[in-house]
Amino acid sequence: MSQGRPLEFDPQLALYKAMEVFWCRGYEATSLQDLLTAMAISKSSFYQAFGSKHALFERCLTLFRERQVGAMRAALERSPSGKAFIRQMLQSAAKEACSGAPPRGCLIMNTATEFSGRDAIIADLVGQGAEQFAGVFRTAIERAQAAGEIAQDKDAELLGRYVVTTMSGLKTMAKAGMPAPAIDQVAELALAALA
Fold first, then answer.
1. Minimal CA–CA distance to 190: which of 145, 168, 72?
2. Tens of pLDDT along 40-81?
3. Cα 38 to chain centroid, rounded
4. How far apart are CA 149 and CA 142, in angstroms?
5. For the chain, first and last CA: distance in Å?
6. 180 CB contacts (<8 Å, ≥6 apart)?
7. pTM for this entry
8. Angstrom distance (rounded) from CA 104 to CA 24
9. Distance CA 127, CA 108 (A)
10. Which residues are CB-contacts of 79 (< 8 A; sequence separation ≥ 6)?
11. Is the model's pLDDT at 6 over the cut of 70?
């Protein structure tokens, strides 16, 4: 049986381009034509390489999660302290609010809001993303606890989830138009709550 013609494009680059479209527009508002245009591929190549819009979206969520978690871990390694890393991450929402470009938030959290748990596969991918983000923050909190920046008796896992929840809220408020100074104030309040 024929396997079809070989692909004439870079599937990984096309995946990145699709992820950017979904991140900017969301799943429902992204049409197949939007994807074909951004990915610079034909409809037949799209179906041969990715199967369906839903299957492509699943891969985009996985790519986004892996990219974000990798960037977070690298930033944590470079950071002078666990608490400094958490401050930097919380303040990133304010930076996004004043960057001049419309804030996009987080693809994982945007998807949680858009899908509201009505798709089990997507809900699982969103849950995996949230847990992995929380895991990086838990590591930062444990590092901060070892350095005396956060009390040892605090539950690092619970605080990691708290930081993810706060980050999600800050990014949502940035998308809603909250000014950067107000976002910074909330970020500082959240940081103070960790101590």
1. 168
2. 999 999 999 999 999 999 999 999 999 999 999 999 999 999
3. 20
4. 10
5. 63
6. 94, 95, 97, 98, 174
7. 0.90
8. 6
9. 9
10. 85, 88, 140
11. no
Q: Cα–Cα distance between 88 and 140 in angstroms, integer? A: 12
Quickly tell me which residue has 């350095």 as its tokens.
Answer: 147
Q: Which two tokens stand for residue 102?
A: 């419309």
Which residue in 106, 25, 102, 98 sits closest to 69, CA to CA?
A: 106
Average pLDDT in the 87-91 region? 93
Q: Are 145 and 154 in contact (CB under 8 A)?
A: yes
Helices (H), 4-155: 11-25, 32-39, 43-50, 53-78, 82-97, 107-115, 120-146
What tens digit of pLDDT does each residue of 125-182 get? 999 999 999 999 999 999 999 999 999 999 999 999 999 999 999 999 988 888 989 9
pLDDT tens string 33-50: 999 999 999 999 999 999
User: Counting every residue, how long is the chain?
Assistant: 195
